[in-house]
């Protein structure tokens, strides 16, 4: 009688993973794995041994224990909407830990103003759940229909409401995290004040899956605004926009929710390629700001906005403005802003920068960076836009018309170096809200304080001594 051939180590691993999550949740066929191996812009294409889709925190823990025992690298992945390659595997020995099946809303509590969501809950669904109990979860980004809260927290996502509510980090009360060795840290506390030692949750928020796998979170809810006032404003230059921001803060205080800055070229890209959009103002301007106030009293908000706009026009800080007369008009203003990232693909290659600078330095950064990239690549088209209220600008630069896209994109690192040097010299950051991933990993040692970088390495070595969690990312 012949004995069956022994299984290979690879087959044994797949069988062990299937025993944990079920055979149909271990993907090994190229077609099934493909969506998990490509960044949505096509900038990164990876390889992996398998995609594993656990359905519970216990299953995540079991997968991590197995990976630790066999020293298998694991790449956590949420909605795969990241922009720096942090969610893409790069190695036939790696497995993707896709958290989409962890999609339960464990609790929604309007009394404590908290919501407990698993990592795979989409941001849109979470916001809708908050709305269902007459509350607001303020994190809002363009990809909210497909991005997941685990990924939002792992990258410390920002968005359009940071000015009023803060980054993702500021919206977390507690976390549940699976560590590299499979242990589960239950930090799902709901306390607003807890001084019992180190605040461990902040180790994992923004760590991009390199220190642990976030499986659930307790998140803050806020009173739902009953009214808003939204304006689309033409300004001559970024310095004028910053003066309007200062004016709006003084006039509106905490009611100032949004202050977005947009270069005219970015608006033109939307008007050329977007659907259901039109120019909000009769005359064009070099720059625009989108301002929104929110609160409970519609008349009071409109009065404040009119005072801000009137004073700005009188001072020469604004040349024109349109105050939304209806919710539909406000949505039309927002649609222009929301489409800016998407439509740039129609203009060929786009080299992107996600920078932050101190507010006082924003005009200088934009002036210097625009001049620098135009000198580097004559005919290139800067199309800057972003969250000027918190110092974050997406400094995107489209290729010259008719240029070869591949040749233009090949200059990505050279252009990055120039733009990042300007931002750093002005006291800024090379990554405001998209993270480091692999795209900016090699830039980090040049930009980060050496002691800070050493502390990051110490944390990584302590929490992931085998180096199996998202290897090659961040550090």
Automatic annotation (TrEMBL):
Its cofactor is FAD. GO terms for molecular function: catalytic activity; FAD binding. GO terms for biological process: respiratory electron transport chain. Keywords: FAD, Flavoprotein. The keyword Flavoprotein applies. Residues 44-224 form the FAD-binding PCMH-type domain. The keyword Calcium does not apply. Belongs to the FAD-binding oxidoreductase/transferase type 4 family. This is FAD-binding oxidoreductase. It comes from Methyloraptor flagellatus.
């Amino acid at each position: 009688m012949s004995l069956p051939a022994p299984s290979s180590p690879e087959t044994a691993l797949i069988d062990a993973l299937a025993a944990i999550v079920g055979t149909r949740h271990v993907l090994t066929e190229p077609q099934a794995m493909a969506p998990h191996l490509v960044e949505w812009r096509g900038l990164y294409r990876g390889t992996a041994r398998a995609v594993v889709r656990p359905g519970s925190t216990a299953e995540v823990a079991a997968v991590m224990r197995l990976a630790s025992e066999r020293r298998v690298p694991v790449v956590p992945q949420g909605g795969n909407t990241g922009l720096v390659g942090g969610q893409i595997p790069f190695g036939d020995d790696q497995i993707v830990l896709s958290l989409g099946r962890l999609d339960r809303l464990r609790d929604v509590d309007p009394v404590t103003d908290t919501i407990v969501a698993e990592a795979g809950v989409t941001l849109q669904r979470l916001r809708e759940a908050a709305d269902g109990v007459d509350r607001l979860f303020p994190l809002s980004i363009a990809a909210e229909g497909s991005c997941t809260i685990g990924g939002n927290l792992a990258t410390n996502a920002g968005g359009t409401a940071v000015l009023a509510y803060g980054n993702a980090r500021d919206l977390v009360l507690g976390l549940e995290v699976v560590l590299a060795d499979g242990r589960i840290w239950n930090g799902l506390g709901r306390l607003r004040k807890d001084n019992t030692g180190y605040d461990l949750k902040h180790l994992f928020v923004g760590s991009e899956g390199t220190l642990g796998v976030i499986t659930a979170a307790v998140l803050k809810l806020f009173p739902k605004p009953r009214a808003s006032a939204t304006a689309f404003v033409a300004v001559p230059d970024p310095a004028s926009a910053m003066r309007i921001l200062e004016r709006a803060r003084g006039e509106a205080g905490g009611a100032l929710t949004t202050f977005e800055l947009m270069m005219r070229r970015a608006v033109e890209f939307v008007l050329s390629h977007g659907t259901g959009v039109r120019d909000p103002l009769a005359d064009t301007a070099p720059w625009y700001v989108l301002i929104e106030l929110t609160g409970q009293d519609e008349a009071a908000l409109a009065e404040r906005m009119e005072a801000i706009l009137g004073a700005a026009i009188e001072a020469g800080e604004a040349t024109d403005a349109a105050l939304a007369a209806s919710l539909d008009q406000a949505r039309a203003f927002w649609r222009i802003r929301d489409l800016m990232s998407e439509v740039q693909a129609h203009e060929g290659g786009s080299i992107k920068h996600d920078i932050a600078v101190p507010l006082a330095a924003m005009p200088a950064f934009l002036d210097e960076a625009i001049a620098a990239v135009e000198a580097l690549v004559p005919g290139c088209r800067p199309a800057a836009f972003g969250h000027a209220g918190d110092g974050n600008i997406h400094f995107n630069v489209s290729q010259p018309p008719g240029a070869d896209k591949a040749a233009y994109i090949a200059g990505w690192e050279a252009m990055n170096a120039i733009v990042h040097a300007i931002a750093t010299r002005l006291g800024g950051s090379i990554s405001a809200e998209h993270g480091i991933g692999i795209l900016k990993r090699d830039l980090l040692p040049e930009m980060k304080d050496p002691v800070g970088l050493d502390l990051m390495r110490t944390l990584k070595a302590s929490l992931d001594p085998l180096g199996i969690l998202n290897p090659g990312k961040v550090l």
